[in-house]
Specification:
The chain contains 22 helices and 26 strands. By secondary structure, it is of the alpha/beta class. α4 links the parallel β2 and β3. α2 crosses α14 and α18 packs across α21. It is globular and about 75 Å long. The protein starts with about 40 loop residues before the first helix and ends in a 5-residue tail after the last strand. The structure holds 1-deoxynojirimycin. The site of 1-deoxynojirimycin has 7 residues, from loops.
Length: about 775
């Protein structure tokens, strides 16, 4: 998507709260409940009956999706296509009344009365904004992901949408890449768990289930490996990395029943996503049995030309269709290349059977979603669902579970409001509602959004004085963000004169018992087209940080960021990553600061000391010189600042009693593992038990550690719980380039269990045929 300039300011209505879906999240929809999936045979027969009536032009249109930003001239073009039955789907309309109006037109004015399928970027919430996806991954709790997307689906469905372009399941190992925020970070195991949970949340038990929408995992595949972290640049990924690291979250999403997949923009090993038959057909359909429909990214079928992969527009359409694309997301404000398919049919460069296959898949999605029977929006119901206060409860609870506590010297946190007289809340992000929500949100209501300052004020009560200063100005981007073109999307900034505001902020810090500094990147500095060649705090925030620390007063830094930042060795008393925590972010942060909940999130990526070290995944190979592993750079240690999986708590935990059921198994058998985790501190808190495996030898050299299990648990002080894991063939196999196949070797495995990727508790077991 490249131009949101004319994006209409639309807003979901405000209205009464409604009483469906409590935290159990058995959300009801705007549509009458559909208790079970339609039988496949019925869906196919109905799709075929429609197909039989369609002209080639209608077929090509049915598999074309147009942007509708509400720009009068462009909308007219799109509406003309619709009225002629040459548009199957629209994106970027999200106002319920407008969705309803367009659907009436599609059904009432077209020859075949086929409803439109409305898709949208429902990335982390629709009206109620959840923490950003990387934050949700940091909860290490797939339930948080599932519940959040269940709420998002209920809101989107009630508004009249049918399909989310989410989750983004791209593995990201380079924090320069802005879209790291949309995924689950660097690890395929965590990524797969989060992918499947989100698909379940969006879709419910089956496609078409009440209050749910189709999920479209993206971007297939390899987008996260963009060269230099530069958004849209090519990705060159070895087969081994592709199968073992980049593809597993997609496989998990397909296994969870995702109804759609979006192909990637960029070329993977030289082949652009929308033209990659190996990925879209051989892997996705033939190997994985994917049954849904594939959409291109925006304009990506046309861009097969731009990529210099095909010579003409008709070629672009034919190559995309024959690669396995079922629907073209046409370019914003641009024409569709699929429009040329009837010509190609006539010429014989594409067959009717090829075209019908794609059309059938799109029609099947509409039939499964119940659109033929119930195409319209119940506007009253929409208002009720969109303003359901329970959705905000879900958002707050999610944000509380996502925060990652990175430092807490001398137990500075939690703060005790009874012992404090004054707090200085400082920083350009401390009172910015728009930044608190993060990028990729559109239907939000800023009035419902709680900033960190707002949350602290509400929680601290009237006896504590709370002073505020932005401290410094957040600088602008060198190149404006595509999303900044709509005024609603831009954070309203208090422009301050840094020269006077910075000393003012420092004076406030000096005069307060504790300072809470909210620093990081503005929401438009991360996301699509928001890659960065630096990990420094933007603007003069580092100067502000250093000056506040120099006061000698206790300092808590809250980082609003979705990539690791380089704080230049500053040592605030406490440091907590709060991500972009969403609608209830400030309330959640206040609950964390004042100890109503203990932070239990863990990093979903490795945090380097500085930019020069990246990429540095924890799951790397051993090398021939492991003993000098710490000396790879002559100027500094090689280790990360904070390892993958790391995060502190207000309590402490101990792992013991790591036991395997057996010391030797035969290939194909499973090993049950158990471990005790004990809360050794003085308060109830969460811990994430993480299990890592290391294979000592085999067909390939394997990473020093790989995550193969995790569980987040809440324990009372002194409580011990025995956790059980099961290591099956899935965890013990991998794809080896030695054989170009998945293998399970006869070998020795080391098992590590603990609360980060540096877990120390260990044991071993063998896989040997002699067991048999
Ligand atoms: C481009 C992005 O890459 C994709 O993730 C998004 O879903 C589409 N634009 C539609 O907005």
């Amino acid at each position: 998507m490249s131009n949101l300039m004319l994006c209409k300011r639309r807003r979901a209505g405000t209205a009464v709260a409604l009483a469906f879906a409590l935290l159990g999240l058995d959300a009801q929809s705007a549509q009458p409940a559909q208790g079970k999936p339609l039988p496949d045979a019925e869906v196919q027969a109905r799709a075929d009956a429609l197909l039989a009536k369609m002209t080639p032009e209608e077929k090509a249109g049915q598999i074309t999706q147009y942007f509708d930003f509400g720009d009068p001239q462009d909308s007219k073009r799109v509406l003309d296509e619709m009225a002629a039955g040459r548009a199957g789907s629209l994106l970027f309309v999200y106002d319920p009344a407008e969705l309803d109006r367009l659907q009436h037109m599609a059904v009432e004015r077209t020859r075949l009365k086929i409803p439109l399928l409305f898709g949208f970027d429902v990335i982390h919430g629709f009206r109620t904004i959840m923490p950003v996806p990387i934050a949700v991954a940091a909860s290490w709790d797939p339930d948080v992901a599932e519940k959040g997307q269940t709420v998002a689906a209920a809101e989107a469905r009630a508004a009249g949408l049918h399909w989310a372009f989410a989750p983004m399941v791209d593995i990201a190992r380079d924090p320069r890449w802005g879209r790291i925020i949309e995924g689950a970070g660097e690890d395929p195991y965590l990524g797969a768990a989060m992918a499947a949970a989100q698909v379940r949340g969006f879709q419910g038990d089956f496609i078409g289930s009440s209050g749910h929408i189709i999920s479209g995992p993206k971007h297939f595949a390899g987008y996260g490996a963009a060269l230099g972290g530069r958004d849209y640049d090519e990705a060159n990924i070895s087969d081994s990395e592709l199968w073992n690291t980049y593809l597993p979250p997609f496989k998990a999403a397909v296994d969870a029943g995702a109804g759609n997949i979006m192909s990637a923009y960029m070329a993977l090993n030289g082949v652009p996503g929308a033209g990659n038959r190996w990925l879209l057909t051989d892997v996705l359909r033939k190997q994985w049995g994917f049954k849904g429909f594939v959409v291109t990214d925006a304009g990506a079928a046309h861009d097969l030309l731009t990529h210099e992969f095909v010579a003409t527009e008709p070629d672009a359409a034919v190559r995309a269709l024959q690669a396995g694309v079922d629907m073209e997301m046409s370019p914003p404000f641009g024409t569709s290349v699929f429009k040329t398919l009837p010509q190609s049919l006539a010429k014989g460069t594409v067959t009717m059977a090829e075209l019908d296959t794609a059309v059938r898949r799109v029609l099947e999605a509409k039939i499964r979603m119940g659109l033929i029977e119930k195409p319209y929006v119940d506007l009253k119901q929409a208002q009720r669902v969109l303003t359901d206060p329970q959705h905000r409860v879900v958002s707050r609870a999610a944000a509380e579970r996502t925060a990652v506590l990175l430092r807490n010297e001398g137990g500075l946190l939690p703060l005790d409001p009874n012992k404090l007289k004054s707090i200085a809340v400082i920083g350009p992000l401390a009172d910015s509602a728009r930044d608190t929500l993060g990028p990729w949100v559109f239907a939000f209501d800023l009035n419902e959004t709680v900033t960190v300052l707002g949350g602290i004020k509400a929680k601290a009560g009237s006896k504590v004085r709370v002073d505020y200063s932005p401290g410094v100005t957040m600088p602008a981007r060198l190149h404006p963000s595509i999303f900044d073109q709509d005024p609603k999307m831009i954070a309203k900034r208090v422009e301050v004169d840094d020269a006077s505001e910075l000393p003012h902020a420092v004076a406030l810090a000096k005069a307060s018992d504790v300072t809470v500094l909210v620093l990081g990147e503005a929401q438009n500095m991360i996301g699509e087209q928001a890659s960065r060649s630096s990990l420094d705090l933007p603007g003069r925030q580092q100067e502000l940080l250093d000056a506040v620390i120099a006061t000698g007063k206790p300092v808590v830094v809250l980082l609003m960021s979705a990539r690791p930042l380089d704080l230049k060795n500053s040592k605030p008393g406490a440091l907590m990553n709060i991500w972009y925590p969403g609608t209830q972010g400030g309330a959640a942060v206040a609950n964390l600061l004042f100890g109503e909940v203990s932070p239990g999130g863990k990093l979903p990526y490795t945090w380097p000391r500085n930019l020069g070290q990246i990429p540095m995944p924890y799951a790397h190979l051993r090398s021939h010189q492991p003993n000098t592993g710490e000396q790879r750079y002559w100027n500094e240690p090689n280790s990360p600042l904070y390892p993958f999986g790391f995060g502190l708590s207000y309590s402490t935990f101990e792992f013991s009693n790591l036991k395997l059921d057996r010391q030797t198994i035969a290939p194909g058998e499973s090993v049950p593992v158990s471990v005790d985790v004990r809360n050794t501190g003085g308060r109830a808190a969460d811990e994430v038990a993480q299990l890592y495996l290391h294979q000592r030898y085999g067909s390939s050299a394997r990473p020093v550690r790989e995550l193969k299990g995790f569980q987040r648990v809440t324990l009372k002080p002194g409580e011990t719980r025995t956790l059980r894991f099961e290591l099956t063939t899935a965890e013990l196999s991998y794809w080896t380039s030695a054989k170009h196949a998945w293998v399970q070797d006869e070998t020795t495995f080391d098992v590590y269990v603990g609360n980060s990727s540096q877990a120390a508790l260990t044991t071993t077991f063998e896989v040997s045929k002699s067991r048999r």
